[in-house]
Amino acid sequence: MTRPLRPAASEIDAGLLGDVRTRLGAGAGEPDDDAVRAALAASGRVLGSDALRDLARAARAELAGAGPLQPLLELPGVTDVLVNGPQEVWIDRGDGLEPAGLDLGAPADVRALAVRLAGLAGQRLDDAAPVVDGRLPDGTRLHAVVEPVAAAGAVISLRVLRQAGLTLDALVAAGAVPPGWERLLRGLVARRANVLVSGGTGTGKTTLLAALLGLVPADERVVTVEEARELAPGHPHVVPLATRRANVEGAGAVSLSDLVRAALRMRPDRLVVGECRGGEVREVLLAMNTGHDGGLATLHANAVEHVPARLEALAALAGMPRDAVAAQASAAVDVVLHVRRRRGRRFVAAVGVVGRSDEQGAGGELVVRAAARWDGTAPTAHVADMATWEALLGRWAA
What we know:
This is Secretion system protein E. Residues 63-337 form the Bacterial type II secretion system protein E domain. Belongs to the GSP E family. One of its GO terms (molecular function) is ATP hydrolysis activity. The chain is of the alpha/beta class. The protein has 3 domains: 14-64, no CATH class; 65-161, Beta-Lactamase (2-Layer Sandwich), CATH 3.30.450; 168-396, Rossmann fold (3-Layer(aba) Sandwich), CATH 3.40.50. 32% of the residues lie in helices and 23% in strands. It has helices spanning 14-24, 33-43, 49-64, 70-73, 107-120, 168-173, 182-190, 205-213, 256-263, 280-288, 307-316, 322-332, 386-396, and strands at residues 80-85, 88-92, 97-99, 131-135, 141-146, 154-159, 195-199, 222-226, 238-242, 270-276, 296-300, 335-342, 345-358, 363-373, 382-383. The strands form 2 sheets. It has a 9-stranded mixed β-sheet, sandwiched between helices. Strands 3-2-1-6-5-4 form a 6-stranded antiparallel β-sheet, covered by helices on one side. The longest helix has 16 residues, at 49-64. It is globular. The chain starts with 13 loop residues before the first helix and ends with a helix.
């Protein structure tokens, strides 16, 4: 049984913390130790140095961080902190979800925390706007839902933004890339292939995408488009763009499609879409077909062979018929890299080539042919189609 994890901070008297928080003021930004010490003195309370340090940490978490969830976000390796209810707090450190052993009080306390986090993200969260997506000041991605949409006061999901993404060398060393594929991945970037990274939720699509972007030459301009900023590529010239939801009056929304069109006017050497999840796939395919080569994007799909159906479904949202999707995608996308997660391990599981079902005739349906597969444990990958694999290496391998 997994041992519950608790924040590594001393117990702080709730009344004292509330008094200091009130004196510091909710709009004062992140307080330093001197500000906490002054607020403590004004309250007439006296603490030792250790207790004062813990109080300052708790005050910072309350005013500029995630409150009682902040210590969990700071645990090594944590990628997600999920709150289903006051006594249902979970974390993910890469090996699956485990209980955090944290008691948040009552449902009203969880709702109050969700509303405060939404405020830190510059968003409104209440009965009129019960769902919010945003980003905390430290970059942590926030998704929160309150009643009546959520049944237990509020549901909070936090995704940690890692400041430094893994390099391709690090992924190879960690066993996430099979032997013999590193040369191909480097060649795809160097020779400006248009690449889709597919996979399910939490499989490491963004991690692989950031690693590939780290291979882009330093003199190239990379423009990234995301719904919420997650990419942290090791590249000196990145222009990040993120969507914006409409306000409560229904105005001010900026969609992924809007941002893709805007990015194309920014003279990008590489256009990167963090995740295609709607009609913006039309703009991405058009961009890849009009001289913007070397583009990269991610896509939710459970297998490399499922990518065509996923592209067709998304493009249909933009009014594209299937034959148009097949024509555009087969001409625009060169390679699909599929990632999987199994027993806590994330790895590149397949390499696919995009084409048509009838290459010799009228073209046929859009297909992705798996050239090679890997189960994440075998010493070498399995070549699924030798002719396709050799052609792939001949064209793209560095």
